[in-house]
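>> Question from a student workshop board

For tomorrow's exercise we were told to take the sequence and the ligand below, predict the bound structure, and bring the output to class. My setup keeps failing. Could a helper post the expected result so I can at least see what it should look like? The ligand is GLP.
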Amino acid sequence: MRVVITKNYDEMSKWAAHFVAKKILDANPTAEKPFKLGCPTGSSPLGMYKELIRLNKAGVISFKNVITFNMDEYVGLPEEHPESYHSFMWNNFFNFIDIKKENVHILNGNAPDLLVECDHYEQMIEDAGGIDLFMGGIGPDGHIAFNEPGSSLTSKTRVKTLTTNTLQANCRFFDNDIRKVPKQALTVGVGTVMSAKEIIILCSGHTKARALKHAIENGVNHMWTVSMLQMHQHGNIVCDEECCCDLNVSTYQYFKDKQRIEGLVEHFADMFE
Ligand code: GLP
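>> Workshop helper replied:
Here is what the output should look like for this input. Compare the format with yours to find the bug.
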């Protein structure tokens, strides 16, 4: 696993955006051979999306031949609701880049048959040839997408009931009223994320410190679903200093040494200036 420790949220966002941009550029995607990108919502990826928009507007990268698959969506929340993940993605990313509407895939949490919707989504990913790069955030309880503690580590796209922890964390988007937060979501599985060729997880701030510790230092455990990243050959975590406060000093030092020797932060931070 590669762990990159950046100074703060802004540096983390920039690093992640440049990493993603480089992957797309290197793949040199065409209409016949598009780049398949897995997309998260949440506050963690917002800064990264802003920088990707800047790079797109500056002509550094194009999303014309990029196909996206979002991680998750609430069940029963109208698509046009300001807090639906459909709204989030269009309002914070897709409306500002040159992506084709038909290349955007987001689960339909209002589908008449949710199981059919989930199977169909999984099939679409497979038909597209799998995800090249899955980007993700992390919940305070270590969930990726909406794979709550106790999720199968080989799970595929399905309906998940959200934990009280997650309802509490997300009620800030629903007038701080936990009763307004949808109780269920459709989500790609841990196995779906793990099937991607490469994964990058963004982890920022004090509230994610425990989750980061479990992701890196403790064993693979379905109570901290992000820990499954340990089993991936190309798993990356990019985090900020604040988020490292629960790591062992030796763990922290090792990843700092490693990134200094490999020039990781400098390399990506200044790539597209
Ligand atoms: C939700 C999303 C996750 C996201 C998490 C953290 O639960 N389903 O994909 O990683 O929130 O969000 P934030 O980045 O806002 O802390």
